[in-house]
């Protein structure tokens, strides 16, 4: 379904200032975007739009950067960070010819609010009680943490995966379709999925969540990590690592989407990244966060909120440049891939032999 401008009552968007801001930005930048609403999410007698935005090149050869937020409704800061970047992008394009040139050579695919119903309810799960990041048909290779790794006991408990054998939740199906078709026949792609709530540092996680074995694309991820750390030596806030170094899970959507891409594009290079903003630091600085569920995942004080909105702009700009230039730095030849893999193993799996079998 394509986007058409329409008036929506404020009542329908109660509790969703992010959706109001998104639609305001769409009106401001509609001449710069290709806008789709492939599905509406039914929630409390309203139909909340699921927006998919594209900007930049339409060339089938253009590398793709996908930006995703709002998978967990309570982690609103993920959507807010993307909207902050989108606002800056729209307004810079009025005067920044270098930015326009950059967009002429890459495509942005933006899904700013995957779970509008969960965001409206201020819950982690979607309106059906399903954790969207435990919902994919992916089984972990070993034991996962109880409940946290995904459970099918009850939708009344957190981290519910959905019923066994059920199709993807509508939000995840729309996300999967957007990524599948957005990356179809694309040799180079990066995605960033913005979350919050784990640890006192901002982490940039690579797949797999399902396995402690090295992910097949870990060599390219290591090359990207080196690019960032070499280019921004004073920007030490991010911890780059495979997600499984922290914990493993069932049903991870990015495991599923990467495997789908690899099956379609065995010679392609797709690096899915999860930004996990370390909200424990916000709690440490302001214990009042402990008394509000929302405050466990989002900065509460206005000055801290503004700081978080601007602190990741360097990362977004870096990813745009890195995506555009992937043909220059992504491992290509067999020997280059082997060197990149060995570098990744030395950094993240120092006790393992260089000939280790990767996860599949």
Could you characterize what this model shows?
With 360 residues, the chain is an alpha/beta fold. Mean pLDDT is 91; it is low at 4-9. The protein is globular and about 60 Å long. The chain has twelve helices and eight strands. 36% of the residues lie in helices and 17% in strands. Helix 6 (218-231) crosses helix 12. The longest helix has 17 residues, at 76-92. It has an eight-stranded mixed sheet with strand order 1-2-4-3-5-8-6-7, with helices on both faces. The chain has helices spanning 17-29, 76-92, 97-103, 116-121, 170-183, 218-231, 253-264, 280-285, 302-311, 313-324, 326-329, 334-348; strands at residues 34-43, 46-56, 64-69, 107-111, 188-196, 202-206, 238-242, 269-277.
